[in-house]
Amino acid sequence: MTDSQLKELNDIDQMVCQWLEELMHQARELVQSHVDVQNKDGNARNLVTNVDRENECWLDQKIRTFNPHAKIISEEGFGDHLVDMDGDVWFVDPIDGTMNFVHEHTDFAIMVALYRDGKPLLGWIADVMGNDIHHGGPAIGVQINQQKVPATPDVVLSQSILMLSGRCLVAGDYGYKTLAQKALAFRVIGSAGIAFSYLLKGQVNGYVSKLMPWDVAAGRVLAESLGFIVTNLDGQALNMLSSNTVLVATYSTHHEIVTMLKG
User: Fold this and answer.
1) What are the residue ranges of helices labelled H in 201-250?
2) 186 shares a domain with 85
């Protein structure tokens, strides 16, 4: 990659970090105030708020102004309907962990990612209440705020703490119970962005959950940049235009989980 290309990536990285700093400040002010909460499709566990919609509109507008020929995949319907990953594709999750945002006032994130011709380029995860922005990509490295993040040491499943989907674990889906039993320990957090932040900080070694494209896009960029393996639960490549049952783990844990579940 040329110096000019690296400069472009660093400039985009810093620009989006500035966007997220503004949104984080606003969200922290709103979290204790009245928020308009609605259910999606009548599902009391699938919440959306005015903050979700306003954040998404604001970010989509910023992206379209900066990169007018790009396409956007965003959660609340203000993006585009894509049939391929050609060109620049941005992913936006305006509030990840809306249940946490509404009821717990913590453990929620704002996420943005940029892919180019299907390849992960840059990702941003803003841990709003932690006041941390995880950002970067394979060419420029990963930082938490301005501090470089080292790769997480590789460990086997019996030494791994896993972040798991609580809903899938209760339902007994996809061998989740077996994973919980064989891992050193497991955690449930209710936000993909916060789960990825635990991975990036080396606090857990793997994450398994059913995720939509906007849930996984930023975390995939950052995790792969640090040496994590990111695939479907069967070890196959993710489809970034549809939901996936995602496995993110260090190499040995990933290999062990895929082999165990295939057996």
Assistant:
1) 213-225
2) no
d(CA 105, CA 98) in angstroms, rounded, equals 9
Token readout for 186 is 């497991």
- Going by the DSSP 8-state scheme, the letter that residue 146 receives in this structure is T
What is the residue range of 200's domain?
Answer: 157-262
**pLDDT tens string 159-200:** 999 999 988 888 887 788 899 999 999 999 999 999 999 999
Which helix (H) or strand (E) covers residue 155, if one does?
none
**End of a domain among 118, 148, 178?**
148
Tokens 């936000």: give the residue.
Answer: 191
Instruction: Put the strands of the sheet holding 229-232 in their side by side order.
Output: 185-187, 161-164, 206-211, 244-249, 229-232
- Listed residue (119, 55, 126) closest to 88, CA to CA: 119
Residue with tokens 């910023």: 62
Residues 187 and 235 in one domain: yes
pLDDT digits (tens, 9 = 90+) for 74-101: 988 888 999 999 999 999 999 999 999 9
